[in-house]
Design goal:
The protein is an alpha+beta fold. The chain is built from six helices and 14 strands. A hairpin with a 4-residue loop joins strand 11 and strand 12. The protein is globular and about 50 Å long.
């Protein structure tokens, strides 16, 4: 969620247990201004918090000119001192998948030992900072959410905030078709020309939540006396999105243990 109004936005997702202390909020507001200046970000967002055994990782996201492609992530333990996460490469993702298991420790230097076939020779080492980078990237790729129409793709192939977006109507906010993944599309590219015929390429360039498999991997409710649409991921428990219909207010935050619910298809 955008750092400029994340304090008020956190109130909309408090029902999911997404709570920060007043001291943490105050420290972040100061930090986000500094991060934007030092890293020359166009915007800074509070991404969320990954819970660890010893310490929790607070995560911030910085965006550049292209809102979709120009993303960097930083983590902090005290909401004041921030460290840049390395990009999550395919090789790093594969290493983490083989080696890192269980809960995060809260120590970025902690090393997960990957053991060879004979269970005696360590073939590679993955530290928790790499695992953190991969987990944050995967969560953002798989369950980041924005309202349909909130972003547009320009003729220069850049993704920008849609300045003419005024929010979904209440009836639109009740349908998963009107909420999309804010990540590179996967399913959209596989659809036929006929299926894509009525789509506006400047606005409809991302995958809709209604296309997700397995069906039922999201929950949608209206909360705060029916004034706020809240969507939660069952695939990555801890990801909560909110939107106040007929307004520009929307955002998502992840607060959880960073572990994917791989049993979801069997639970539905």
């Amino acid at each position: 969620m955008d750092s400029t109004h994340f304090c008020s936005a956190m109130e909309f997702v408090a029902g999911s247990g997404s709570v920060l202390t007043g001291e943490q909020k105050a420290a972040m507001q100061t930090s986000f201004v500094i991060l934007r200046k030092n890293y020359k970000f166009e915007r800074v967002l509070f991404w969320g918090k990954i819970l660890g055994i010893k310490e929790d990782y607070f995560i911030a996201q910085g965006r550049g000119e292209d809102e979709l492609k120009d993303k960097k992530y930083l983590y902090s333990f005290n909401c004041m001192d921030w460290f840049l996460l390395p990009p999550a490469t395919e090789a790093m993702t594969n290493e983490v998948a083989k080696a890192a298991k269980g809960h995060f420790t809260g120590d970025p230097s902690f090393v997960y030992d990957q053991v060879g076939v004979d269970a005696t020779e360590a073939v590679s080492n993955v530290n928790e900072e790499k695992r953190l980078a991969v987990s944050v990237h995967q969560i953002d790729e798989e369950v980041s959410v924005v309202p349909r129409g909130a972003f547009i793709r320009t003729p220069q192939d850049l993704v920008h905030i849609n300045r003419s977006f005024s929010g979904l109507s209440e009836s639109e906010a009740k349908k998963f078709d009107n909420f999309i993944h804010f990540s590179e599309p996967r399913k959209l590219k596989k659809k036929s020309i006929v299926e894509l015929g009525e789509r506006n390429p400047a606005r409809d360039f991302l995958d809709a939540l209604s296309d997700d498999v397995p069906e039922g991997s999201w929950s949608l409710q209206f909360e705060n006396a029916g004034q706020v649409c809240v969507i939660r991921s069952l695939l990555w428990p801890g990801l909560t999105f909110f939107h106040v219909p007929m307004t520009l207010q929307h955002g998502y935050v992840y607060i959880g243990n960073g572990i994917k619910n791989l049993s979801l298809p069997f639970q539905l």
